[in-house]
Amino acid sequence: MRRTRSPEERSFYEGEALRGGWSVRQLERQIGSQFYTRTLMSKDKRAMLEKGVVANPGDTMKPEEAIKDPYVLEFLDLKDEYSESDLEDALIHRLEDFLLELGGDFTFVGRQRRLRIGDSWFRVDLLFFHRRLRCLVIIDLKLTELNHADVGQMHMYCNYAKEHWTLPGENPPVGLILCARTNEAIARYALDGLPNKVLAAEYHTVLPDEKLLAEELAKTRREWEAQHPVLPDGSVRLRD
């Protein structure tokens, strides 16, 4: 734990290691991959900064807070050129490491789950269940940049899963398109306003640049603090 830079970061790793039952090797991997900073850099950055990065058991969680961006898959040892099936096989082969990267609330359900719509058969790449969200998470792997067709396909999968795979008491499924690159404009116009919750995140096969992550986090903090000034009594004014 000597590599942590702040009491908050140390507390985060201690809590997550205890909650997830991490081994020493797993803890070292999480610190080396900047898991703390990447969690802060999740889709809903400001919400994470307001709530605090360490989740309490009673906290409600939104899908945006459960999904990191990017995901670091350096443990796969992929060749320079690989197919989607190669990527999927590697993730299954290193499922324990993939679950560690996804987060402690993810549980594996299956791969290549078949679904029939009309006269056509489809398969979802990976299927997980998220305990705190209490819903299925469908993961679709893409080697290219996110496009609107990927979003439409995932929306169809979520509709089917909601009708046929969701059990009583569970929340509607969440779709995660894990792609080589996201396009902010396409993501905004293709994902916003959908009846189903569909998210997109990048995956990287090398460890992140620590300096760049720190700079991006500092920028987010400055933006948040500018919008939430400190009052004379030391409290923070939260704006809608």
UniProtKB/TrEMBL annotation:
InterPro entries documented for this protein: PD-DEXK-like_domain, tRNA_endonuc-like_dom_sf, YhcG_C
Pfam families assigned to the protein according to its UniProt record, in alphabetical order: YhcG_C
Domain YhcG PDDEXK nuclease: 65-215
Molecular function GO terms recorded: nucleic acid binding
PANTHER family named among the record's database cross-references: NUCLEASE YHCG-RELATED, UNCHARACTERIZED PROTEIN YHCG-RELATED
UniProt protein name: YhcG PDDEXK nuclease domain-containing protein
Organism from which the protein derives: Caballeronia novacaledonica
